[in-house]
Fold this protein.
Amino acid sequence: MTNLAPLDIVIAGGGTAGWMAAATFARFLGNRASITLVESDEIGTVGVGEATIPQIHNLLVGLGIDQAEFLRATNGSFKLGIEFVDWLRVGHRYIHSFGSVGRGVGLIPFRQLWLRGRAMGVAGDYDDYSINIAAARAGRMAKGDGAAKAIPDLSYAYHFDATAFAAMLRGYSEERGVKRIEGKIGEVERDGESGDIVALTLNGERRIKGSLFIDCTGFRSLLLGDALGVPFVDWSQWLPCDRALAVPCESSDAFRPYTQSMARPAGWQWRIPLQHRTGNGHVFCSSFMEADAASDLLLANLDGKPSADPRLIRFTTGHRAQYWSHNCVALGLAAGFMEPLESTSIHLVQSALGRLLNLLPGDGQRLATARDTFNRLSDIEWVRIRDFLQLHYAANDRVGEPFWDHVRNTPLPDTLAQKIDLFRDAGLFIREEDELFLDDSWGQVMLGQGITPQGWSPLADNVPGEDVGPFLGSIANGYRAKAATFATHRDFVATMVAA
Ligand code: FAD
């Protein structure tokens, strides 16, 4: 067996991505690597990124960070899913929740029984069969014990203050030996023969040498994009929003255990409740709305007094053609961005870190294979998420509104068109290639966006007809009754934080 060669890791950038990388390397590579992080206070971070998905638990557990400590440090709250308001048409709403919907019977998927029950007139809304949605609608939260049971535990993620999260990870990393250097990267020095990066020069003087460089410089992509010339693959034909305005406001009485996403004439608005404030933002497409109008719309739709002026962030959706080139891996915004609709960016940093740790070559002989595998798997992950995001836009009934007409009429990638076809036929879904979002997520968003299956799978006919209604009713009633016993979200957070 070959041992891992000692690594000199240099992380460029100290936003969420940079400090997640530093903490993960410090925890898992221990004294096999020296880890240096360079960041520039002058440049600053993007400062947004407040909603997550349940996979964040793996990061916190992996790093050994206690949940209560985390919630205290980041003013965090719980997230059971995302409510989509007005996306299908004005006045319509649905929740894409975490966790499972209903309960299958043997090999018969729950959605098939529901589809049959719907045709028989004995099924409620699909939303009625999610314990997460029952709790979200009641504004309640509970933590289970992870044991299998008839009524599953809530599946949850967090909302948090992104700047506080990066600061927490910085403390964690520095305690474990990560060296932080403040300075502005000027030159990226490359080896004349291999093209590998050799060193970064700060402010025209100090030189930081390394053997593995992690580009976390945000949208600039200073190392992978600028220095190594890896081109950007533009996805704005599928995901055309290219601007965001972010503004915090005072908390309202409604301390919802979920994110809200409200469709707007040229994009959508997020609302994220934290303990000390609410995070808001308006993501929009500049070809359909001016920034001033987008700002007015955002400010007119806050549920508290704004505590700052809206900050404009420009972006183009897409990714670098390779995420790893030579001896440089890009993470976070330096690798690409798909807009925050399903809170996937922080997760993509985390999953790329996991992949990288598992592929770090022993003696350097198989570096090219590791790199190709990393890039291939990353591509699959990104494409499947892009399809899921595009689904939200493409399936809409907001006819006559220029932006919504445009996104509805945009040709779909084959990968998405096939998924919609299968679903429209009989509510079918097959998970492909380890994609991030599972059957229940796709099912909720397909139905929420008005894609109605024409039939159901013959599998569902294996249950006697007279049993379908009582079976569905027992789940919905059981979930609703159980959710009513949970603590309010506010009380639940207060208890945890005080613990
Ligand atoms: P940044 O935060 O931009 O950090 C870049 C770092 O590089 C900084 O430390 C900077 O100082 C440093 N740097 C740059 N140039 C130099 C230089 N020349 N010299 C030295 N240092 C340099 N993600 C989610 O998961 N959930 C969300 O809800 C979510 N919402 C978002 C909303 C918006 C509008 C946007 C734009 C993004 C959102 N994201 C979200 C994405 C999330 O914010 C990012 O993935 C995450 O913050 C990581 O950012 P980063 O660290 O890659 O970049």
